[in-house]
Amino acid sequence: MRPHKFNDHDLNLLQFLATQTSVTIRNVQLVSRLNKFTEELEKRVEERTEALEHILQELRQERDRVDTLYHIARQLSTSLDLDRVLNEALHLLARAIPITQGSILLITPSSDHLVYRAALGRRRPLPRGGKQTRYKIGVGLAGRVLETRQPKIVHNLLEDDSWIPDDKELLHRSVLAVPLITSYEALGVLMLFHTQPNHFTNDHLSMVTAAAPMVATAISNADLYTLITQQSERVGILLRGVQAEAIKNEAIVEGITDGVLVVDADDSIQLVNPAVAKILGVPREELQGRKLDTILAEMTSPVDQQVAQMLYQIVTTQQANLPEQDETFVERISIEDKTIIASLTSISLTSNPKTPASILIVLRDISQEAELDRIKNEFISTVSHELRTPMTSIKGYIDLLVTNKVGSLTDMQRKFLQIIKSNVDRLSALVNDILDISRLDAGRVKLEQQSINLDTVIQSVMASFDHQLEEKNLSLRLDIPDDLPLAYADPDRVMQVLVNLVGNATKYSQPNDSITITVEVVDQYFQIKVCDTGLGISEEDQKRVFDRFFRAERDANSLVDGTGLGLPIAKMFVEMMGGT
Question: Is this prediction's pTM over 0.70?
Answer without folding.
Answer: no
